[in-house]
Design goal:
single chain, alpha/beta, Glutaconate Coenzyme A-transferase, ten-stranded mixed beta sheet, three-stranded mixed beta sheet, 4 helices, 16% helix, transferase, 3-oxoacid_CoA-transf_B, NagB/RpiA_transferase-like, Probable succinyl-CoA:3-ketoacid coenzyme A transferase subunit B
Length: 220
């Protein structure tokens, strides 16, 4: 399976975490793909830090409006009822706890739900953006990412080695291999992707995992 296919698979699984009526924020990169898979039976309002509420899927070629962009400067579409407001009001919405769920990418997630997703030391970055506010303001924080990094090392670790975006903020992790919930008892394995076993996931994950009694095998 190619990398784009993997990204699409993760995005499709992440869509299941969005509930009817949610106000949701989709982070830059892979999370924006989730908008393409939202069920027609769900009424959702997607919010962007730059001041949009009511974002639709990526535009077709004949729908592109260069003035209509998300926080990642990607062109987007409007859903019915879209509203616009300034950046300060947008962050007031985030900081005020009015975002039900955020779907963000991740570089590392620790065993207690710490998140590192904004920089690798030594590499030039533009800054954290709105991620620090989002992880503390959203009611649920879903992290989507590959299970292993490019070197084949676990991205789900005992302790994050990269600079943190937020401490103890992650609700759930969705990877190309598994779905893992952050619980008071530790990381709980609840779903396994097709082609993997419980032992496979344990070997690819640094912290010890609690395996749910209702774990779904080959769930997606």
């Amino acid at each position: 399976m190619g990398q784009q296919d993997i990204r699409e698979k993760i995005a499709k699984r992440a869509e299941k975490e969005l509930k009817d009526g949610d106000y949701a924020n989709l982070g830059i990169g892979m999370p924006t793909l989730v908008a393409n898979y939202i069920s027609q039976h769900k009424r959702l309002m997607l919010q962007s830090e730059n001041g949009l509420l009511g974002i639709g899927p990526y535009p077709a070629e004949d729908q592109v409006d260069p003035d209509l962009i998300n926080a990642g400067k990607e062109t987007v579409t409007e859903s019915q009822g879209t509203s616009y407001f300034d950046n300060a009001e947008s962050f007031g919405m985030i900081r005020g706890g009015h975002i039900d769920v955020a779907v963000l990418g991740g570089m590392e997630v620790s065993s207690n739900g710490d998140l590192a997703n904004w920089m690798i030391p030594g590499k030039t970055v533009k800054g954290m953006g709105g991620a620090m506010d989002i992880v503390h303001g959203a009611q649920r924080v879903i992290i989507i990412m590959n299970h292993l990094n490019k070197n084949g090392d676990p991205k789900i670790v005992n302790t994050c080695s990269l600079p943190l975006t937020g401490a103890e903020v992650v609700t759930k992790i969705i990877t190309d291999c598994a779905v893992i919930e952050v619980t008071p008892k530790g990381l709980m394995l609840t779903e396994i992707a097709e082609g993997y076993t419980v032992e496979d996931i344990k070997k690819m994950t640094e912290p010890d995992l609690v395996v749910s009694e209702a774990v779904k095998l080959e769930a997606y």
